[in-house]
Write a structure and sequence with these properties.
Number of domains: 1
Distance between the termini: 35 Å
Structural class: alpha/beta
Helix content: 40-55%
Length: 302
């Protein structure tokens, strides 16, 4: 990828080296890979991923009451990139964040007939641990969007995991991660995310299915931005394949197989590899949010 911007400083909130961010004690919000490590643990223990998240956060809160360890933890992060790979990733993330937000600021009013505008938000860079209004976050959490503070969070160490463990390297794979999380922010702006949460509370039996639909829609929205990037000449040969590979790498079925567990579609929270690739491709092909309707009712929401 070759962006034509250097990234707006105002689009980024850099917390690396700081003693955590503000926020309450609620659970971390929408994640990309969906909390890959937590998902694997949940499969191994045959538990609901939300139970595992709660247990992790309770442990974190206990550790915070005792104070940070001398070896690191909150406040022990680096002041910047920890290695050359993160240094390169940071450049891309800063540029991608600005490009994605520039795109939605123009495109969202156009694609909604002027019914919606796009208020810019920020991406939070953190190292090791931070706090969000959705609760504690750490590198193992993976990138996520927190509806409570309307911020996107990422520890750049996630990209090493994506490249090495999940075999999804490449700059467009990294940009897809960011575009997916800002897709969740677009869902929030359009009122889709709150509608899904209400529907989940009203029908717990449909909770996982609604979560999958929400994630697939975010993949589609990432594809809509990707189509614009292609039209503007930002993408290079092989970039689209990188994005598709990243979408496939974090499918629920692939994560289950990596954990040595039976694939159970009823337990999916983010969608299968094939589903994620398909919805990302739909966005890339149509280049408009009107096709991003996994709920199937023409309203883009449940």
């Amino acid at each position: 990828m070759e962006f034509n911007n250097e990234g707006r400083a105002s689009d980024i909130q850099d917390r690396r080296g700081q003693s955590g961010g503000g926020g309450g004690g609620r659970r971390a919000g929408l994640s990309l890979g969906g909390l890959v490590v937590v998902g694997i643990i949940a499969l191994l223990l045959r538990k609901n991923p939300l139970e595992v998240i709660n247990a992790v956060q309770q442990g974190q809160q206990g550790a915070e009451r005792q104070g940070p360890s001398r070896g690191g933890g909150v406040g022990g992060g680096s002041m910047g990139p920890r290695n050359d790979a993160e240094r390169q990733a940071e450049v891309l993330v800063r540029r991608a964040t600005t490009d994605i937000q520039d795109f939605w600021q123009t495109a969202l009013p156009q694609m909604t007939g002027g019914r919606a505008s796009y208020p810019r938000t920020q991406l939070v860079l953190f190292a090791d641990e931070t706090r969000s209004a959705c609760g504690a976050a750490e590198a193992a959490t993976g990138p996520f969007f927190c509806p409570a503070d309307r911020l996107v969070y990422i520890d750049l160490a996630f990209y090493a995991e994506l490249s090495q463990r999940f075999r999804a390297p490449g700059d467009f794979a990294q940009a897809y991660v960011i575009a997916h999380e800002f897709g969740h922010y677009v869902q929030f702006v359009l009122g889709i995310e709150p509608a899904v949460r209400r529907a989940q509370r009203a029908n717990r039996a449909n909770e996982n299915a609604l979560s999958v639909q929400l994630e697939l829609q975010a993949d589609c929205l990432a594809g809509v931005w990707g189509a614009s990037a292609a039209q503007r000449g930002i993408l290079r040969a092989g970039d689209v394949e990188e994005g598709m590979n990243a979408a496939a790498a974090i499918g629920d079925d692939r994560i289950a197989r990596m954990a040595g567990r039976r694939v159970s579609p009823e337990r999916f929270t983010h969608g299968s590899s094939a589903q994620r690739v398909e919805w990302f491709r739909r966005g890339m092909t149509a280049a408009n949010i009107t096709v991003c309707d996994p709920f199937g009712n023409g309203t883009l929401r449940p």
